[in-house]
């Protein structure tokens, strides 16, 4: 499995930014996505991950989500206005 382009952490909550190359009729392009996870210790002492969150995790998700969003938008701004999301100014 490929490694994420960037990871953000707040406590046990993580956001991972992924870049995947896609091919279409007119060429190759990059698709960006973000996944969220929470690390926890199982009863046997081993660490595991889940995509299920508790009430107290929600503010942490907001923090890592904002960091991922800012990271992705900073990349677009550096590439130039033609790659910015429609309606956004770069």
Overall description:
- The structure is a single chain.
- The protein has 90 residues and is α+β, with helices and mostly antiparallel strands.
- It has one domain (6-83).
- 24% of the residues lie in helices and 40% in strands.
- It contains 1 helix and 4 strands; from the N terminus they run E-E-E-E-H.
- A 4-stranded antiparallel beta sheet has the order 1-2-3-4, with helices on one face.
Key traits:
90 residues, 40% strand, four-stranded antiparallel β-sheet, 1 helix, 24% helix, alpha+beta, disordered C terminus, globular
Précis, in short:
By secondary structure, this protein is α+β, with helices and mostly antiparallel strands. The chain is built from one helix and four strands; from the N terminus they run E-E-E-E-H.
The largest pleated sheet is described as:
4 strands, antiparallel
Order of helices and strands: EEEEH
Distance between the termini: 33 Å
Count of all domains = 1
Strand content: 35-45%
Please provide the count of β strands: 4
Query: Which oligomerization state do the chains in this entry correspond to?
Result: single chain
């Amino acid at each position: 499995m490929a490694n994420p382009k960037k990871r953000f952490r707040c406590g046990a909550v993580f956001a991972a930014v992924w870049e995947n190359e896609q091919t279409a009729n007119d060429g190759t392009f990059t698709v960006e996505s973000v996944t969220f996870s929470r690390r926890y210790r199982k009863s046997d002492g081993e660490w595991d991950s889940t995509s299920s969150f508790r009430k107290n995790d929600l503010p942490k998700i907001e923090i890592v989500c904002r960091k991922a969003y800012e990271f992705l938008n900073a990349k677009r701004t550096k590439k130039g206005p033609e790659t910015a999301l429609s309606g956004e100014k770069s």
